[in-house]
Structure formats: C-alpha cells, structure tokens
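Incident log, structure service

09:12 report received: a user says their structure output differs between two submissions of the same chain.
09:20 pulled the input from the user's history:
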Amino acid sequence: MIEFNKARRSFLIGSGSSLLLTLLPIPAFAEVPKAICSKAGQKVLLKGKNYICVKKSGKLQWQLLTPAKPTITLHPTPSTSPASSHSTTPSPEATHSPPPAPSVTSTPQIVSGFIAAKLSDLTEGKSKIVVAKDLKGKSVSLALFLSAGVVTVHSVVCTHQGCFVGEADKTLACPCHGSVFDGRTGAVINGPARSPLQGYKVAEAGGDIYIQSDI
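09:34 re-ran on a clean worker, output below:
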C-alpha cells in the first residue's frame, strides 16, 4: 500500500509539472540578451535575432524585433601589409585594390553583437567617428569607413601613445603627435605610430551596422 502511494504521488507530481510547462508561454523560456539594456532604441544581435531596448512600465527591457532573424551580411576586414603599416609617406605601390563585395553568411544564427551606426549615416570614401553603446551599456567611440558597399570599423585609440584620433576625410589623424592612419584599413600612413589601429568584425542587418561580439 505504501509503495502504491509513492508511485501515485510521483505520477501526480510529474503530471503537474508537465501541465505547468504546457500552460506557460514559450517566450518565458526563450533566450534573451545578457547585454545591458541601458537606453531606449539600443539594438543588439543575439545569434541572428534582432532585439531592441524599450521602456515598459518604467523599466528598460529587451524586445524581439520582427523579423526575428533578418538577413545578415558579413563585411570583410581588409588586411594591412607590413610595408604599408610602417611607411611614412603613401606611395602608388601601397594603394589597395577594391575590397570584395560583402557576403551573406550561411549561418546567421551564430552572429551576435551591438549596433554601431546605420549604413545611411555613412558617406562613401569618408571616415566617420561615432559613439555607440557596447554590451556592458558603456559608451564607446568607433571609426567607421564605407568603401564600395563595404564597412570597416576601427578603434579610435592611437597605437602610439593612446590619444584619440579624429576624422580627416579618408584618414584618421592623431592630434597629439601627428600620426595618420588609413580610414579604410587602419594602416599607418604617417608616424610616429608603427602599428595599425585595432579592427573589429562587422555585420549588417536591416541597414544597421553591428560590431560582432559574444553576448
């Protein structure tokens, strides 16, 4: 009799748990960004899904955008050759060939990151420095460049002594000691800096430019 009651109690508990899971909405168990939702309108990608920060009942929270999985385009990062990163003056031999067209990734579900700017904010062939919210909710300055439909993004921190570079048409110039960097590749054009600017992986979704990063 005791064994029977134990078996019956286990059956009832299991049935109740199954019923609870059935009644609860699926979104309650859906994965949400761990990034800090710090400003309304802030956007992030989480494994190919697009989220926006909204204010509801006085609180900021992530909301899934439609379409949940937009078409994601990966923008290739141009490489910098040793010769171009240490040259003090530009030369015909150091010119770069046109960048390849962006390619649509076949596995958009793995792409995550935070929004840096809109593609429409950029001008062909010119550097643009923007301020974005990273995954920790902190403001970060980034240097963007649009060339033949391809967007490249670099750090604004000069590799010489850590000053912030500024926009200078197609280049990025350091006001502290005169270093100049190629706006598209981040390569050094004029010293005293000897190393190129740090580059970031870039993805585009719905006209928004994202910096690829794990969330």
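09:41 both user submissions now match this output. Likely a transient worker issue. Closing.
09:42 reviewer note: The helical segments are 2-23, 82-86. The first helix runs from residue 2 to 23.
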